Amino acid sequence: MKISRFGRADLYNAIVLIAWAMALVWLLTGDRYLRFFEKDFQPLLMAALAVTVVFLVAGFLRPAGRKDSKSGVKIWLNTGLLLLPLLYIYGVPSAGLDNYARSRRVPYVESTLHDKGRPVSGEKDTAQPFDHNHDYPGFGDSVINVSLMDIETNIDSLIGKNIIVTGRLSHDAALPSGYFFIYRFVISCCAAHAMPMSLPVAGNPDMASIPEDNWIEIQGVVYPERMIIDSFVFDSIPVIHPISIRSIEPPASPYISSW
Predict the structure, then answer these.
(1) With left for phi above 0 and alpha for psi between -120 and 50, is residue 79 left, alpha or beta?
(2) What is the pLDDT of residue 125?
(3) Are 4 and 65 in contact (CB under 8 A)?
């Protein structure tokens, strides 16, 4: 096969296909695709890579050998538009969606909790600080690793238990002074449809120095409190009372699967 058989259209098609094949390989390497999709979507990405390679090989074996009737500027513009999504793929942070995205979406847990709360009608914030000297059940129990989804769906069985949970930190002004949110996004297919899941944490002065959106690991006890959040009063809301809090590296998958 002689390279002279290739027309301009063949060359630009090859550039686009090679670029997308490299992007798919990059996503599959090190499970980077988890920034965008659930793990169950990996076979679809592998299939997309296979189809891209087939089209690329077919283009080399049987090039059209024709010149595109469009001008050079239009061809480069079309090629650029096909390659433009790659900037987003390579540019998405490994930590996933952040607190800005959280603030722009309907909260997954808070919206559910609002159904259990009532609008503020003159009550003052009476949320009491956690008493570490109080002998709550579970303090001496073995530690249970859970997710925010586990806490939300199995709250009754986790009240008073010694747990470890990971997520990102949010200094939300809707919370009483001294509290913050730990949150993660719940994903059912892809990041475009992810919804935030948040739970309040009884804070301490050291938390003020931890930057927004930092990934943290909390060991503590889930215990109900009376609290006002975003103009809603909750007589009994699950709050994580920390024993220890530490910063961690972002996990391979920043999202919680809803499946």
Answers:
(1) alpha
(2) 46
(3) no
